[in-house]
């Protein structure tokens, strides 16, 4: 049964995501992506006008799954908001302590595209990071944290820092140290703190 | 007067540093670097066996100047260690809030080389980050901070996080928020805290 247009598009994005993440934005060629997706270059360019558009589509495809993963880590950690924030970093430390992990795809793409301001993938990456920060602020507010917004802002810096340092040193101790700082930033509601 | 061998090498590294930083490791070609340095490719390859070696030399050339810059920011900020840590981030926020700034060269290189473990430039970058952390721990210890080592470890995560987020959002508010957290991590010696 031939693939319909949506399925073909998805297949191209999946192949692009894998190659862009594993090899880098510039290193992965459109030829290699088309081959991996099992489509002709003509078909690829029917769905995406340019490689730049495909890079943006790659990051857009990682937006919701990334949010879902962190939301699961947060929700599934038992205890107070402090515990949940610490749990987020503990899960992140575990997930990143493998050879397969090659950094945060959003940050690596921003690094590779640093000389092309206005690139559609930079916009997609910035939109994701804003959504992530808003999700975390909401999650903390639902836990009745009084400084949810300010805490979320500092915690995303710690998370991105942890991802960056992890790529340099491959040492989860930095991620756990960042998690302790992040947990200390959360101001528990008075009743909970007294419990 | 013809350049001697050391001067030629330095000229190549300077040209490489500029192109690698401005365009990216993979985007900048050896041809472009040789041309910018005003040498033939043969001369370039006499000094560096490979592009990989040249990438490592670029990061090594940025090690001491980067340490010197942060040491100056730290030393020249008046006040307590808390003020100095906050000052470090304030200076960083100013320095990075320009179009010319394109991220931390060490982190961007690690991002581009994520799929080549053991690359000499990854080693040079990791060595720099370790030296930076050791410098900061020493600087805090000289200010009689009781938790100098632990504070330095968390502060480098915040600094790398600030650099990463700055590249994504180009908003110094994140850097300043990270600076407040960093300042709060420093445990002042008792006498100073009471002053």
- Supply the CATH architecture of the largest domain in chain A: Orthogonal Bundle
For the record, give the distance between the C-alpha atoms at the N and C termini of chain A, rounded to a whole number. Answer: 61 Å
Helix and strand element order of chain A:
HHHHHHHHHH
Number of E strands of chain A: 0
Mean pLDDT of chain A: 95
How would the global form of chain A be characterised? elongated
CATH class of the largest domain in chain A: Mainly Alpha
Q: Which two chains form the greatest contact, residue counts included?
A: A-B, 45 and 45 residues
Percent helix of chain A, as a range, is: over 70%
Per CATH, the superfamily of the largest domain in chain A is Tetracycline Repressor, domain 2
CATH domain fold name of the largest domain in chain A: Tetracycline Repressor, domain 2
Largest sheet of chain A: none
Radius of gyration of chain A equals: 19 Å
Quaternary arrangement of the chains shown?
homodimer
How much of the sequence of chain A is in beta strands? under 5%
Structural class of chain A: mainly alpha
| Count of distinct structural domains of chain A | 2
Helical stretch tally of chain A:
10
Contiguous low-pLDDT stretches of chain A (5 residues minimum) are: none
